[in-house]
Each structure stands twice: as C-alpha cells, then as structure tokens.
Design brief:
- The structure is a single chain.
- The chain is mainly alpha-helical.
- The chain has one domain.
- The chain contains seven helices and no strands.
- Helix 1 (3-55) runs antiparallel to helix 3 (76-101), helix 2 (58-68) packs across helix 3 (76-101) and helix 3 packs antiparallel against helix 4.
- The chain starts with a helix and ends in a 5-residue tail after the last helix.
C-alpha cells in the first residue's frame, strides 16, 4: 500500500468518524430537548399547583372569591390580594406562552394550558378587569393572545363550571340512588 492509498483510507475513516460524531450529537440533542421539555412541564405543574392550592387556603379564598366576580364593593386589602393573585396567574401564563414559542412546550400541552386559562381564569369578570388594568405590563405578543381568549369568552362562561358540577352531582346522586339495595 502506497502513501496515496493510506491518505485516501485515512480520509475515508475520517469521514466515517465525522458522520458518527454527527449522529451521536443529534441523539444527544434530541435527548436534551426531551429532558428540557419534561423539566418545563414539571416546573409549570408545580407552579400552578402551588398557586391554586394557595388560593384555596382560608385567608386567600375570600379575597379571591370577591375578586373573580368583579365585585365593586371589594375592600382595598381584598382588592390588593386579588390583584396580586390574578397578576401571578397572568405572569405564569405568559411564561408558558414563551416556553411554547421557544419550543420548550409541545403545542398540545400549551393548548391545554391556554384552554384552562380561558375557561378557569379569564372567563371571570374580575380577572378580565385586572387584565385591563395591567395589560400594558405584558409583551405585545402575549397581549394579543389574552385579548383573543377574552374575546372568545361568553358572558355566562364563568358559571359554566358550576353548572357542569351541579349536573354531574345530580347524575351521580340519581345513579347511586338507583343502585341502592332495598332494605
């Protein structure tokens, strides 16, 4: 084997090594992307769970209840508490929006968050009023998203979940009553 053949062989082996390195790198990037997405979902879940559980605590539930309904006679302290809770929700939602835009959240997962924010937060008049007051503190892109979601909310949507609850409770009660043994 002469020097030229050895050089060609070395070039060939080098080319295979580059291809193998690229394949390895692609696999590592894919695994890293999955890890980032999984971590993002876990963080979002923990943030929202903590926020929602805190809303249900005794000292926060009254200001939150008064605030979501948009009551004009809300006390100053309750308004402040509600405004901060509502703003925290909007900030969390904006964070999810940008995680989605940057590829850290899958579209399916993001659309679920978007739907939940629309149906369970933005459907309430108090959150809509806080949005009107604070919307300039958010990015223009996010303002478009929230404005669109609010425009899709029907006037009575904030009662929909309660109505669904009452219907399901009535159905379950009827179902269990029909399965009770006669004593």
């Amino acid at each position: 084997m002469n020097l030229e053949n050895l050089a060609n062989l070395g070039e060939f082996i080098g080319g295979i090594a580059v291809i193998a390195s690229l394949i390895y790198l692609a696999v590592q990037i894919r695994q890293n992307t999955r890890s980032v997405k999984s971590s993002t979902i876990a963080t979002n879940t923990a943030n929202w769970s903590s926020l929602l559980v805190n809303l249900a605590s005794g000292d926060r539930s009254e200001p939150y209840s008064h605030g979501i309904l948009g009551m004009a006679d809300i006390s100053g302290i309750h308004f402040q508490q509600f405004a901060l809770m509502s703003r925290a929700m909007l900030v969390s939602f904006e964070s999810q929006h940008y995680q989605y835009l940057n590829g850290a959240l899958d579209e399916e997962m993001y659309r679920g968050y978007e739907r939940a924010c629309k149906d369970q937060i933005l459907a309430f008049p108090g959150h809509q009023m806080i949005w009107e007051i604070t919307r300039d503190g958010f990015s223009p892109e996010f303002r478009k998203v929230v404005d669109r979601l609010i425009s899709e909310v029907g006037e009575e949507d904030y009662f929909r979940m309660l109505q669904q609850w009452q219907e399901l409770a009535g159905q379950r009660k009827a179902k269990h009553a029909s399965h009770r043994p006669n004593l």
